[in-house]
Write a structure and sequence with these properties.
two-stranded antiparallel sheet; 4 strands; about 650 residues; mainly alpha
């Protein structure tokens, strides 16, 4: 085998002495990089862009040797690292690089499994991580924290912070208090690498969770403990970021983590947060050069809205947020800052969602609607998700403000639905219109709308489009009734619904993954079954197929969606556009349809079958017996029994 060469002890010793040790020791150019170009040092050391460097190669060699010769390698290197640590102890000021190299080697020896985001999840049984941390790493961090403004041996302290971050899962909870306290103090260090590594350490420590004998894992640092640390953390963060300060996405991510962990307990700091975020966003908008930093800025704002404004029933927090943020957002849109506009639409929609439904909205929301209806804006694909979300949200919140804009909105829908990339955004808009308005409001548009939908289905069907279409048709049927749906389809072509039911609605519904969408489709089919027009030919002939489809949705039968040729998103050449970056903390589920809130879909189907049976005595039971599959018949019998009914 290739590794047989290394089985000899003298060969391993030569590798350790001649290859590994010389290449893990810090060189002068790396010390200069630490001081003169901290951003590049962080990129290489923290992000792993040093994959081709001698230090990283030596580290990977040690890890590889440990796979086959763990005991021999650990024994050899223990002697070398002990000697390095002794040199450091004899003269810390002159020999700090020896300890830095020792920490680097020990990290490679201990690491077995893990990821960059999760840290080390598996370690060597031959070296005690906690003992090494307590004896060699922790003291460096704590001593530096005693005077963060004048830290000596800065590279060594940075390496110590990185070690603590890497092996955070193995450090026991009782050590977390001192480690967090010291890391927070080091966030106040003026040296960029140090305060960055300290911020990363704090942020990563807050992600660690411990499994429980029963129930979900719990954070190692409890929410109540973090709340007490917030003032000092915020003071450090705000001293490092903002107008005139270097953009540091690692520090900003720490702020985001603090908000996500403490949630509503951030309320006392809301004004300070908003002042910082509005100023930082405004400054970044003038030169949006760092996309990761910019993304975390808006994530921090979205998390503030979600965790502070949403729980506040008085609305004061939301009003404060709107007052601080609205002028900044207006400036971004007025100056056409294309990198930030997609974020603006998402956060505006998030704040809009928190306003009471039916009440008069602040002028800043209504004033944004008219510019969004400009067709040229919809040519920017990166804008589309946020703008379509905003239109849907404002439609739900203030239908009266939108009703006069319906022709323009339907024009936008037609543009979107013609695109395989953006069709789902168009479907979302018209679904919201149906959920919001009575049939009388939309009656004049319904025929043309369905014509557009059917033409797209016939000319460019994809699994994604078909699923969005049947969801829309289900919402339409639940809201306006099965007879209305049949009339619309018959106006396009008599009997068209028969083919649509069998070839699209029932067939595609079985591949739906989302439980809410499955429930809506089942309720849509139930509404169709009990309608008068459906209980006559040619529709009665597909009652068995319809029942099979509805019951399959309720019992959870799924099939894989069939991918159509050319369906992959992004397949259309739309030219250059700023990419849409979704903000994770804007998603709360509050925008989901409430039409079926409290509705039992099984009982709804059973009642629909009973009503149909009463209208067509004898016929329905015969169809069920002859055309409905046996497992579906048994499920239907259970649904009927749950409401104390039978069919004859």
């Amino acid at each position: 085998a290739d590794y047989a060469l290394f089985e000899k002890e003298d060969v391993l010793q030569q590798v350790c002495e001649k290859v590994v040790i010389p290449n893990v020791e810090l060189r002068v150019d790396e010390e200069e990089l630490f001081e003169d170009n901290p951003g590049e040092y962080i990129k290489k050391d923290l992000e792993g862009s040093d994959a081709e460097t001698r230090r990283r190669a030596a580290s990977e060699l040690v890890k590889g040797l440990c796979v086959r010769f763990e005991t021999a390698v650990a024994t050899l290197f223990s002697g070398y690292t002990t000697a390095m640590l002794q040199r450091y102890a004899a003269d810390p000021s002159s020999n700090w690089a020896s300890k830095d190299a020792a920490i680097y080697i020990v990290t490679a020896l201990i690491w077995r499994t893990g990821t960059k985001s999760a840290g080390a999840t598996g370690t060597s049984a031959l070296i005690n991580v906690v003992d090494f941390f307590e004896a060699q790493v922790g003291p460096e961090i704590h001593n530096a924290a005693s005077n963060p403004g004048a830290v000596e041996r800065q590279v060594l302290v940075a390496s110590s912070l990185k070690f603590a971050t890497t092996f955070r899962n193995q450090i026991p909870r009782e050590k977390y208090g001192d480690l967090m306290s010291s890391a927070i103090k080091l966030m106040g260090c003026p040296q960029r690498v140090l305060h960055t590594y300290a911020s990363v350490c704090v942020e990563r420590l807050l992600t660690v969770k411990d499994p429980q004998a029963s129930g979900p894992p719990v954070p190692r640092i409890r929410k109540e403990e973090v709340v007490g640390l917030v003032p000092s953390i915020l003071a450090s963060i705000f001293s490092l970021l903002g107008p005139g300060k270097p953009e540091n996405e690692y520090v900003l991510k720490c702020l985001l983590r603090i908000t996500a962990v403490t949630q509503e307990r951030m309320t006392p700091h809301l004004k300070t947060m908003l002042q910082f975020l509005s100023g930082a966003i405004d400054a970044a908008a003038k030169n949006p050069a760092n996309p990761i930093y910019n993304h975390y800025l808006f994530e921090a704002l979205a998390s503030t809205v979600r965790f502070v404004c949403r729980p506040d029933t008085t609305g004061e927090a939301l009003r404060a947020c709107e007052a601080h943020i609205a002028p900044v957002f207006q400036s971004i849109l007025a100056n056409d800052v294309v990198e930030f506009a997609p974020y603006v639409f998402q956060v505006q929609s998030q704040m809009l969602e928190l306003n009471p439904t039916g009440s008069a909205l602040p002028a800043s929301y209504i004033g944004l609607l008219e510019p969004l209806l400009s067709p040229t804006l919809w040519d920017r694909s990166g804008y589309v998700p946020g703008m379509s979300l905003y239109i849907s949200t404002i439609t739900r919140k203030d239908p009266a403000a939108v009703v006069g804009k319906l022709p323009a909105i339907l024009g936008i829908f037609q543009k979107l639905v013609s695109s395989k990339v953006n069709d789902h955004h168009g479907m979302s808009i018209i679904t919201t219109l149906v959920e919001t308005y009575p049939l009388e409001t939309l009656q004049q548009y319904v025929g043309e709308l369905f014509k557009i939908l059917m033409i797209r289905l016939q000319s460019a069907k994809t699994a994604k489009y078909a699923q969005k279409l049947i969801y829309f048709v289900s919402v339409f049927t639940v809201k306006y009734g099965g007879d209305t749906l049949i009339s619309v389809f018959d106006a396009l072509q008599p009997g068209l619904l028969v083919g649509f039911l069998g070839q699209v609605w029932v067939q595609e519904a079985s591949s739906l993954e989302n439980s809410h969408e499955r429930k809506m489709c089942a309720c849509g089919l139930s509404a169709l079954i009990q309608s008068d027009k459906f209980l006559a030919e040619p529709y009665l002939s597909v009652l068995g197929t319809t029942l099979n489809g509805a019951i399959a949705l309720l019992v959870g039968v799924k099939v894989e969606a069939v991918q159509e040729d050319g369906e992959e998103e992004g397949g259309e050449d739309e030219g250059y556009s700023v990419a849409h970056a979704h903000l994770a903390w804007t998603s709360s589920g509050s925008g989901q349809s409430q039409m079926l809130a409290g509705v039992n879909a099984e009982e709804t189907l059973a009642l629909a079958v009973v009503m149909a049976s009463e209208k067509r005595p004898g016929q329905i039971s015969q169809i069920v017996q002859n055309s409905v599959e046996q497992p579906a018949q048994e499920a239907l019998a259970r649904y009927l029994a749950s409401i104390g009914k039978t069919i004859s």
